[in-house]
């Protein structure tokens, strides 16, 4: 199951460079993860300073 970014996202971009498949992009005020590209590695979640990325 792909990771997702919650409303806690502060749009800092810390997760972007950590994604090995470039599944993260900037959305409307927050980052979004393309579930079709996500490989469930968790690298983005580990990089998030506000714990806004969860499995789901």
TrEMBL record:
Residues 1-28, 29-56 form the 4Fe-4S ferredoxin-type domain. One of its GO terms (cellular component) is cytoplasm. Keywords: 4Fe-4S, Electron transport, Iron, Iron-sulfur, Metal-binding, Repeat, Transport. GO terms for molecular function: 4 iron, 4 sulfur cluster binding; electron transfer activity; metal ion binding. Gene3D superfamilies: 3.30.70.20. InterPro entries: 4Fe4S_Fe-S-bd, 4Fe4S_Fe_S_CS, 7Fe_ferredoxin, PSI_iron-sulfur_center. It comes from the Bacteria. Its cofactor is [4Fe-4S] cluster. SUPFAM superfamilies: 4Fe-4S ferredoxins. PROSITE patterns: 4FE4S_FER_1, 4FE4S_FER_2. Pfam families: Fer4_9. Ferredoxins are iron-sulfur proteins that transfer electrons in a wide variety of metabolic reactions. This is Ferredoxin. It comes from Aminipila terrae.
